[in-house]
Task: structure prediction
Amino acid sequence: MLSACTSDAPGTGLDVQGLRAQLAKRLAKNRGVAAANPLVALTRAKLAGREGPVMIMYTPKKRTYSTLGLIGENQDVQTFGTPTKKSISMSGGVMLATRGLGADLLAADTQAVRAALKAAKATTYTRRYRRLDGTNLLVKESFQCSLTNAGAETIEIVELRHRVFQLRERCENETSAFSNTYWASVDNSVIYKSHQWVSRKVGYLDFYLLID
Result:
């Protein structure tokens, strides 16, 4: 039994307090304790001077948050990176590829859904995905998708209010299905918030645009 009044176990060179901290972290993770939401503490004053675009990414399956900053652009594709070397590529706010997440999305068609989002009205289309499965094998899938407009609403992201349409996308094939949601400005120029599917293993990612 470890003594509460020592920081090292005599004769062992062990950092007892460090071991306790590691154990506490593991126990917290096993209990499913969520990471603190950085959106709660952020203010526009803290973001002053930051060049955009900047996003916060939330991973529901892991209950973790990451900051995304722009690291590259190629025509209409923007690639965002995290401090832990993960990356997300987007076109018009629609995710088309991920790297460093495990069962990554290698490529996704975005042209049809981007056109549907811009029109902001009910429509149907086909989307194609190329992704890695849990054993790093390439999987190609096609989905029949539909988009509906759930109406206008106002959302707030770090002290800024945005008037948006909530646009819901439902995609399915013979073996699987997923639902994405996009909160797009009423002039259809910016997606301020989204909930987008990556793969069965990774699940969904939520994005919050802090600076556009």
About this structure: The chain has one domain: 38-211.
